[in-house]
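Box S1 | Example of a co-folding query
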Amino acid sequence: MGATAAGIALLMLLCLGQAHGDHHYPNGVGGAVKEKKCDYSQGRWVYSSSYPLYKSSDCPFLQSEFDCQKNGRPDNLYLKLRWQPTSCNLPSFNGIDFLRRNRGKRIMFVGDSLSLNQWQSLTCMLHTAVPKAAYSLRTWQGLSTFKFPAYNVSLMLWRDALLVDLVNKNGTRVLKLDSINSPKPWKGVDVLIFNSWHWWLHTGRQQPWDVLQYKRNTFKDMNRLIAYKLALTTWARWIDSNIDSSKTQVFFQGISPDHSSGSDWNEPKASCRGQTRAQVLSHMSKPVYLLNVTSLSQLRKDGHPSIYGYGGKRGNDCSHWCLPGVPDTWNQLLYASLIHEI
Ligand SMILES: *[C@@H]1O[C@H](CO)[C@@H](O)[C@H](O)[C@H]1NC(C)=O
Ligand SMILES: *[C@@H]1O[C@H](CO)[C@@H](O)[C@H](O)[C@H]1NC(C)=O
Ligand SMILES: *[C@@H]1O[C@H](CO)[C@@H](O)[C@H](O)[C@H]1NC(C)=O
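Box S1 (continued) | Returned holo structure for 2-acetamido-2-deoxy-beta-D-glucopyranose
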């Protein structure tokens, strides 16, 4: 499990870091930042009496699968842990400041249910900061928009687990690793936070495609790490040619570790990791900031809903995270990078 996360983290670093070979930021930071910044990815979890940052009961729109307390989780130490980076402090989260800084902006999470997890966390953090401010929440054709009209800030979620095109050809679901042509609402958004990983591992009935296609070739299956690399390269090209980095900030959420003991984490072959190192030649010219949440989340096996997700009805959830919980820290990292980069 750890080895896979490390393999992917390495791959992402290579994909995202390519364009910035002459910069050496610890977090794989893009070109815009001048000074050397703190590495938030290294640290430890410490007890804090002022945590959690909000109560789930103060957040009426929180989906029940993340609301572990409401689902009967009896312990609460997992709510009281704050991330302490080794060599600096994370700025404490100031929701009003976040809203003011982002006035008139659209912020969009793009990815799978872990994006949903982080989006829900951020909307809860902000709503509890301005409990009297009106908000609206609408979902239309796969796009959910949470809006604070007084601040003119929209926090959006676009569910897109694989990022590249998944098309239906005569009843066959074809995943096109080299194509992002289907309509994507990402364009023109001010802040984009992408995430994609977990669905690349699914096999059997959970696999969202029937065949994979790359250039003119069709594959029944292939090494998933390679498929992911090809798709991420396609995504990187899309970003390079469609994003105006004077307007849009792009983040990539690192792998959120899955602590299930099942076979989801296919151990990548050592040779594959070596190949990744040699082969990934991304041509990204736009800065992308990696939110490296992997290691800090890895330490929080206790943060998953386990049997207290989905109202306790749907087994053992070791992929998502209870809210309040670990994704709140991901958003603190997002906040920290937004305030340092602006
Ligand atoms: C993420 O942070 C961990 C801990 O500092 C580090 O070991 C890992 O290399 C980082 N991953 C990337 C892709 O930068
Ligand atoms: C709100 O922000 C949008 C951009 O997201 C802008 O087009 C619009 O003019 C703003 N509205 C007000 C009332 O400031
Ligand atoms: C779909 O099926 C029809 C008839 O079976 C065939 O003519 C057509 O070429 C197929 N299209 C694709 C994209 O495979």
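Residues 5-339 form one domain. The chain has one domain: 5-339.
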